[in-house]
Amino acid sequence: MPITRRFRARKAGKDDGAAPAGERDLQELQRMLTQTLAGLKQSGAEPVLASSLKRAVLRKDPTFAESDYGFRAFGELLRQAERNGVLTLSEGQARGDPAVDFPEAGQAGHAFDLLRQTVLELQGEDGEVPLSGLKDQLRKRAPNWSEKDLGYSGFLQFVKAAAANGAVVMEWDDSEGDYFLYVPD
């Protein structure tokens, strides 16, 4: 049974040096939205309408209510996520039901740049950086960074998207049993 949002918000209220509880809650909520949106897009649901996104969120968490996060309506929550650069809204098929998508470059572009810069900094004499441990290196440079905020279910999926986008080159090494990344000259 999922923990209710109100309980988590009260529980997260202790001061542990992290972001304030309200900010963490919004970050967690935006992460859930991006993961759900990514799942809908992978299933071929194009365009993803706000109403479809809300139904999918409710299937994942039947206790979800945008009012628990201080929003009067789901559309208000989506507009805030758009202002935060997490997603984009465009005119949908019906008035009041916008299409929801990921920003073209936005946060993903910045995250790909961070990955590219990190790989450049870590490239040794052989010019390659193993995938193992790379996520920790990204978090040293951007402590709150998470691929889940961008809608990726895992770090490997994020790195593959970055490679497909041309930010890095990624190759499998059978002898090492790991992916290696590099930035071409």
Search tags:
185 residues, alpha+beta, Arc Repressor Mutant, subunit A, Nucleotidyltransferase, domain 5, 3-stranded antiparallel β-sheet, 14% strand, disordered N terminus
Folded structure, characterized:
The protein has helices at residues 5-11, 21-42, 50-60, 74-83, 106-122, 134-141, 155-164, and strands spanning 48-49, 88-94, 97-101, 129-130, 169-173, 178-182. The chain has 185 residues and is α+β, with helices and mostly antiparallel strands. Helix 2 packs across helix 3 (50-60). It starts with a helix and ends with a strand.
In short:
This protein has helices at 5-11, 21-42, 50-60, 74-83, 106-122, 134-141, 155-164, and strands at residues 48-49, 88-94, 97-101, 129-130, 169-173, 178-182.
Low-confidence stretches: 1-21
- Oligomerization status of the protein chains: single chain
The beta-strand count equals 6
The coarse overall form would be: elongated
Number of helices: 7
- State the share of residues found in helices, binned by percent: 40-55%
Order of adjacent strands in the largest pleated sheet:
1-3-2
Quote the average pLDDT: 80
Provide the structure class. Answer: alpha+beta
Helices and strands in order:
Elements: H1 5-11, H2 21-42, E1 48-49, H3 50-60, H4 74-83, E2 88-94, E3 97-101, H5 106-122, E4 129-130, H6 134-141, H7 155-164, E5 169-173, E6 178-182
